[in-house]
Design a protein that fits this description.
alpha/beta, 4 helices, 8-stranded mixed β-sheet, Rossmann fold, disordered N terminus
């Protein structure tokens, strides 16, 4: 009885897979090293998971078309869950730019971080005008000292032919540029 049910489920799955058309493709954001270096006021920084708008938190790659309509690029998915990926990218870039010990939460070290950083993204989107836009607000909460909040708006060109790889490269560039801005303005 169990064999028959399992075989039926496998057959149904194979049929659905055959009808599904082309498989989804996953697109990774290329890793690059920042060129800038910035001294900051803290030796340890805890980054909370980045908050993204619903469309940006999806695995699908969204594009803003004519009239501001936001729609997914069919069959193309981010290689990693975007909230997790952006958090890890920002953590890596901040550590490289500042030389500080930077980690995403939950904080993995025994001693508490000297400062907590929270990022709330309002827009993370490729636009048909050939730009990638990343905007929102970040919050800096030091263990000792004054809390700060800053707005950010990063716009980078999407090079190439507006392919998924070009959009991914622009996203990586925008996150790297944002990390430099946070280091220079928020963590000093």
């Amino acid at each position: 009885m169990l064999k028959t049910g399992t075989l039926a489920m496998l057959g149904a799955a194979a049929t659905l897979a055959a009808c599904g058309g082309t498989p989804d493709e996953r697109v990774a954001v290329p890793r690059t090293d920042p060129v800038q270096s910035q001294r900051i006021s803290y030796s340890t920084v805890a980054l909370r998971e980045v908050s993204l708008p619903t469309y940006a938190a999806s695995e699908e790659i969204y594009v803003s078309g004519p009239g501001g309509v936001i729609s997914p690029d069919e069959g193309l998915l981010w290689a990693d869950e975007p909230g997790r990926a952006i958090t890890l990218e920002l953590t890596r870039y901040l550590a490289q730019i500042t030389g500080a010990r930077v980690a995403s939460e939950p904080w993995p070290f025994v001693d508490r971080a000297q400062v907590e950083l929270e990022l709330r993204v309002e827009e993370m989107l490729a636009h048909v005008d050939g730009t990638f836009r990343l905007s929102g607000q970040y919050f800096v909460a030091p263990e000792n000292g004054r809390d700060r909040a800053n707005l950010f708006a990063v716009v980078v060109p999407i090079g190439g032919t507006f392919s998924a790889q070009d959009i991914a490269a622009a996203r990586g560039s925008a996150v790297r540029q944002l990390a430099g801005e946070i280091a220079a303005k928020g963590l000093r």
